[in-house]
Amino acid sequence: MREDLEYGGKKERFRLRLEDLCYAWALLEEEEKGNLGNVVYVNKVGKITRTERYAALYTRWLISHLLSGIVSQKRYKYYTALILVKKLKLLSCKKLSIILEKNRDMLVKEKTPLLLTLTKKTLSDALIKQIETEVVKLAEEVSRKKSQ
Question: Where are the domains positioned within the chain?
């Protein structure tokens, strides 16, 4: 699985080669627009809210916590995308990539208690429950496929 997302520094644009992009949501999104196989330039993403940020980080942490040792590191972002973008429709693919890249240090084991505290302060109980339900479903599906 490849995570082809390049950042064009000076121009502040993201360059995505869509036939290489592993995320199902990005492929579907661009296929509908007729862009599949083209290189698409995306302008800088607007403001990222605290809710979006902590929803992304909490989902990614929860997935890695439940699937540790079952799937490769590269799959965690993909699964996070499936839950947040496809199932819960919380983020765009561009925002999710930015959040997870820029906040990698929040996902370190030593910072987990801080992340969980901030998540519980920022996200509603209903949203946390929704994320947890989707992650558990995904974890069960992945471990079922692994055991077959």
Answer: 6-43, 50-147
